[in-house]
Amino acid sequence: MYKTHIADQAYDFKTLRNLMAKATPARSGDYLAGVGAVNNLERVAAQWVLADVPLKQFLNEALVPYEQDEVTRLIIDEHDSAAFAAISHLTVGDFRNWLLSEQATTAALTAIAPGVTPEMAAAVSKIMRIQDLIWVAKKCRVITRFRNTIGLENRLSTRLQPNHPTDNPAGVAASLLDGLLYGCGDAVIGINPASDNLEATSRLLHMLHDVIERYQIPTQSCVLAHVTTTLKAIEQGAPVDLVFQSIAGTQKANDSFGINLDLLNEARLAALELGRGTLGDNCMYFETGQGSALSANAHQGLDQQTCEARAYAVARKFKPLLVNTVVGFIGPEYLYDGKQIIRAGLEDHFCGKLLGLPMGCDVCYTNHAEADQDDMDMLLTQLAVAGGTFIMGVPGADDVMLNYQSTSFHDALYLRQLLDLRPAPEFEQWLQQHGIFNAENQLLQRPDVPALFKSSLQNLSE
Amino acid sequence: MSDDNEPTIAQDPWHSLKQFTPARIALGRAGMSLPTRACLDFQLAHALARDAVNIPLDFAGLEQRLNVQGYQTLTLQTQAENQSVYLQRPDLGRLLSASAMACLQHSAPIPVDAVVVVADGLSSTAIEYHAEPFLSLLLPELQQKGYRLPPLCLVKHGRVAIGDAIAEHYAASLCIVLIGERPGLSSPDSMGIYFTYQARSGISTDADRNCISNIHNNGLSYQQALKKLLFLLNEAEKLQFSGVNLKDETTDAEPNDRLKQANFLLD
């Protein structure tokens, strides 16, 4: 069925799953899994064949069997055929043309989103260049709310990530204040706890709640513990704004994370019950990343980018405030170098946005990847041009707890002045009110800390 | 280049917060960007971390230093034949090469209790700096406990699970692997120790191992690491297992009061 003859070579891709994997731009994780194209010609042959596959075929040929996998069941059972109607006659190649055309306005893209499956998004991304991924994502608009408004046009939000190697409260507070004074933290103030236990999680939750209350910061908090830990914290009365969980695109991978759809639903309902959102009820924060299913040996023969897109079906079900692809964290056995990391980040952002998700990206790398700050600057800039919803803010881009390099408070300021991207309006107002930003979206230069924080710093010795 | 007096740099008047965290805070800014000094500081740290990954470990030198101390060694290679393959194919770093297998076969088939494996892992500098001094504390302890040991196995391009194959070959019940950890920007030379009871190739998983991490000059000391490892060895022999159900009950020497320290933002 998936056959072609190209440059004197006959190609016969046995299944849609196989075709998708062969059509994927080269990356180390697909070679590690043994599913990637063996050479450039095979990859391009697969892309030619894939371009002729009708979008409808993705509703008929599940890449992971329906009976075996609850993520497949979610994708098929909750598919919106009315929304799909407008694009149901298209092939993958036609779909690319349509997405790039004037017909695909922001309103049209919003309307079709519930009719697009992760596999359709992944398929079309495989035959798109970087500029296509940027342009189409830029046309998508996804707005979410909890205590502020995320995703408005010409806005860029930041997750303030004040991690500390031992969760020392003063250590967390030091990075937190540094970030606030650089205008960071409107997406979420989110801490990765050094140890995933209930006591540490609760302590950090209370601390973030108290800081947000005391300084009246229009943002939300999150402690990135396992969802079961957060559920227990809610039971004990801890002030949980956003429920965090890492998610993946197969049931088996989610099993290895100790989660399933029922559990995520239970956690979301528990957080909604607390009623802590003032502007909206988007109360979930998900993280994903290409390669996570393979690293759990649960990729089911899929390429890692298709697996990743399927995770967005899981995310979409729970109406998250934020979805973050932690693109370079996993290491070079999945994304070998800067080139692979950059493309993966933009693919993820595009697929997420096309599916209607508030997609941000942890623009990041580890020290054993063939990548450096120049690569991150390229992804950072391209993501912002593409309308990326949020990035991370880590002091000096160096996460001293997780031992990887992300983006800094300075990186966000660079994008703000380069592209005139403002923070969420409620947060922007707070920054201006307290003399952190001026009305032109710039950090105010001042000899002293703003009055709001002056007394907190007064008693500290150098 | 003195950033302090540079009029184009906006200083952050909250340097006092640096006492609370090793994070790169209060860096100041040139326009909206990093000042030159902070920018180069980062590049320096990254260079050290990259070199830790990419500069090959001097196996001959390490072997010689250990031999001088009277320890026999075997240098073994995995199926990851070079660094690029090693980084992209973790599976091959868990398998011994054919020549390494042959080398093991030639090693005397004496009954042993414990194997000690040293693998370069992701930081050659970690092993270069910390393996030999740590071994000179560990090996006398093991001998004193009466453990029979084969030669130390030094493994090039090895992952943690390479110890399983070696323990299995010797039918040793205790497997100790010293390995260079993924280098952080502030800890390029961090060594880890993985201990597995009844390690068996392809059967033992991460859940069967106990890890003692973060051994470097600003992290866990050799003595602290040794204490933890000896505790785990003793407990595993009693319980006949290692891994997630074997809890490290040794206390860290670090005082706890820093944890309870007040938070200046909320006082």
From TrEMBL, chain A:
GO biological process: amino acid metabolic process; ethanolamine catabolic process
Leading EC class: lyase
CC cofactor: adenosylcob(III)alamin
Lyase listed as a keyword: yes
Listed InterPro entries: Aldolase_TIM, EutB, EutB_dom_2_sf, EutB_N_sf
Keywords: Bacterial microcompartment, Cobalamin, Cobalt, Lyase
Cofactor comment text: Binds between the large and small subunits.
Descriptive protein name: Ethanolamine ammonia-lyase large subunit
Name of the encoding gene: eutB
Family to which the UniProt record says this protein belongs: Belongs to the EutB family.
Pfam families listed in its UniProt record: EutB
Entry-linked HAMAP family: EutB
GO MF assignments: cobalamin binding; ethanolamine ammonia-lyase activity
Chain residues that bind adenosylcob(III)alamin: P193, Q245, S295, M401
Binding site for substrate: R159, L160, Q161, N192, E287, D362
Lyase keyword on record: yes
Pathway as given in its UniProt record: Amine and polyamine degradation; ethanolamine degradation
Summary of subunit composition and partner proteins: The basic unit is a heterodimer which dimerizes to form tetramers. The heterotetramers trimerize; 6 large subunits form a core ring with 6 small subunits projecting outwards.
The EC number(s) this enzyme carries: 4.3.1.7
Record's subcellular location: Bacterial microcompartment
Biological role: Catalyzes the deamination of various vicinal amino-alcohols to oxo compounds. Allows this organism to utilize ethanolamine as the sole source of nitrogen and carbon in the presence of vitamin B12.
UniProtKB/TrEMBL annotation, chain B:
Catalytic reaction(s) noted: ethanolamine = acetaldehyde + NH4(+)
Cofactor: adenosylcob(III)alamin
Domain of life: Bacteria
Pathway participation: Amine and polyamine degradation; ethanolamine degradation
Keywords assigned by UniProt, alphabetized: Bacterial microcompartment, Cobalamin, Cobalt, Lyase
GO biological process: amino acid metabolic process; ethanolamine catabolic process
GO cellular component: ethanolamine ammonia-lyase complex; ethanolamine degradation polyhedral organelle
GO MF term list: cobalamin binding; ethanolamine ammonia-lyase activity
Enzyme class: lyase
Residues engaged in binding adenosylcob(III)alamin: V160, E181, C211
Free-text cofactor note: Binds between the large and small subunits.
Residues in the signal sequence: none
EC number(s) on file: 4.3.1.7
Coarse class of the protein's main subcellular location: other
Compartment(s): Bacterial microcompartment
Family according to the record: Belongs to the EutC family.
Function, in words: Catalyzes the deamination of various vicinal amino-alcohols to oxo compounds. Allows this organism to utilize ethanolamine as the sole source of nitrogen and carbon in the presence of external vitamin B12.
Known partners and oligomeric status: The basic unit is a heterodimer which dimerizes to form tetramers. The heterotetramers trimerize; 6 large subunits form a core ring with 6 small subunits projecting outwards.
Protein name: Ethanolamine ammonia-lyase small subunit
Provenance organism: Methylobacter tundripaludum (strain ATCC BAA-1195 / DSM 17260 / SV96)
Gene: eutC
